Amino acid sequence: MSKTKLKPSDISIGKPIPWAAYDGNGALLLNKGYVIQSQHQLDILLDRGLYRNKEEGEQAEETTAPVHNEHLSPFTLLDDLASRLRVALSDQHKTGPATDTQVDFADRIRRIAKELIALTETSPDACLGAVHLWRCGPYSIHHMIHAAILSCLIAQRLSFERQQLLTLTAASLTQNLSILELHDQLVHQPGRLNPLQRIKIDSHPVHTRRMLKDRGVNDDKWLDMVYSHHECADGSGYPQKLSGNDLLLDSQIIALCDRYAAMISSRSYRKALQAKYALRELFVDKRCLVHEKLVLTFIKELGVYPPGSFVKLENGETAVVTNRGEKETWPIVHSILSPRAGLTQTRCAATPISSPTPSKVPVLPPIRFRSTCTGYGAN
Question: Looking at 27-41, 118-132, 225-239, 323-337, which range is the least confident one?
Fold first, then answer.
C-alpha cells in the first residue's frame, strides 16, 4: 500500500474522516467515517503515526464551510477549537527558516478559522453568547477566539468574500502571538502596565508579524492585518500611526473586536463592563478608534442586549439573553432567577445588570449552565 502520513490539519474533530486510517505497518486503525471526539485522542493517534492509502486520492481542500456534528453544542465545539488553537500556537518561540512543521502551522490556523466561520454561520447567537459567557483555558486564547467570532459576524454583515473572511479570521486568531504569556500575566496583575510591558505591547504587531513569517505564513494580507490592527482612525495608534484612508478595513474590524472583547473581560484591577456600556463607550469614542460607520455596524450586529448578557425583566426576574429579538430592546431570554427557580424562555423588555450573585444562581456546572441557557443539551 502506498501511504501518506496524515497531518493535524487533515482531520477535524467531531467530523467523519473521509478515508480509512492505518498505522505505520499498514494495520487498520480507523474505518472510513470514524469520528474523532477530542484533541487528546487525535494527539495520541498522530503521535503513534497515522496514514491513509494514497490511492484513495488526496483529501480535497474544502471550499465550503465544514458541517459540524449536530449532536455537539456550539460551546463544546468552541472548547475544541480553543484547545487546537492553543496547541497550534504552543511553538510560538520557534524562530529561523520555516520547517515542514512550521509550514503546516498556517494550514492548521486556516482549518480552525474555517470551522469557526462555519460555527458563526450556523449558530450566531450561541457564538455571541460564548463571547459574553464562555471563558475556557488561558485568557490569551479565549480572548482571540472571542475577537475572531466578533470579526466573523461583522465581516459577514459586510458581505466579505469567502477568502477575505478566512484571512481576516486567521489574522484575528493570531493577532497576539508574540505576547500570549504577557496577556495571561496582565489579567492577574494588580496594577496597570509597567514601562517594559508597555514597550512589549506597543511592539507586538511587529514581533508577531515576524513570528508568523518564521512559521511559514506567507499571506501578505494576513500579515498586514496583524501588523496594523492597533492603528487608529485619528493617527494615535501603533506601530505606524496610520490614519484615515490609510487604514485597512480588515484591520479596523480586528481592532474594534479586540477592544470590545477586552472591555467585557475583567482584570484584577477592574470589573468587566456590561455589554450595553461597552457598546456605549465604543460609540462615544468611535471617531478615535475606527471609522464611525464600522462602529455603528458593530452595534447593530450585536444589538442592545447581546446574547450572553444578564438582564432584569419588567416582572422582576433575572434572565440571560439567549437570542437577539426582532426589536433591539426585546431580546429572547431565559429566566434564571425567578419564583419558579427554573430556566424558562420568554420575550420581555429588559434592563441590563451585571452577572447575578453566584450564591443566587441555580447550581449548575458552567458547561451545563451555558448550554442549557442557550437551548443546547449538556454536550
Answer: 27-41
What are the distances in angstroms from CA 232 to CA 252, 258, 262, 322, 357? 8, 13, 16, 33, 37
Residue 159 vs residues 65, 98, 147, 169: alpha-carbon distances, Å: 15, 34, 18, 14
Report the alpha-carbon distance of residue 194 to residue 145 in Å, rounded: 27
The residue ranking higher by pLDDT, 354 or 111, is 111
**What pLDDT was estimated at residue 11?**
84
Q: Are 278 and 139 in contact (CB under 8 A)?
A: no
Q: Is the per-residue pLDDT at 91 higher than 80?
A: no
CB 267 within 8 A of CB 187: yes
CATH code of 74-302, in short, is: 1.10.3210.10
Dist. CA 158–CA 208, nearest whole Å: 27
Question: In 3D, which of 115, 180, 188 has the Cα closest to residue 152?
Answer: 115
What average pLDDT does the chain have? 80
User: What pTM was computed for the model?
Assistant: 0.76
The one-letter amino acid code at 150 reads L
Percentage of the chain exceeding pLDDT 70 = 78
65-87 residue pLDDT tens: 444 455 567 888 888 899 899 98
- Cβ count within 10 A of residue 10: 20
Q: In the chain, what are the domain boundaries?
A: 3-56, 74-302, 310-373
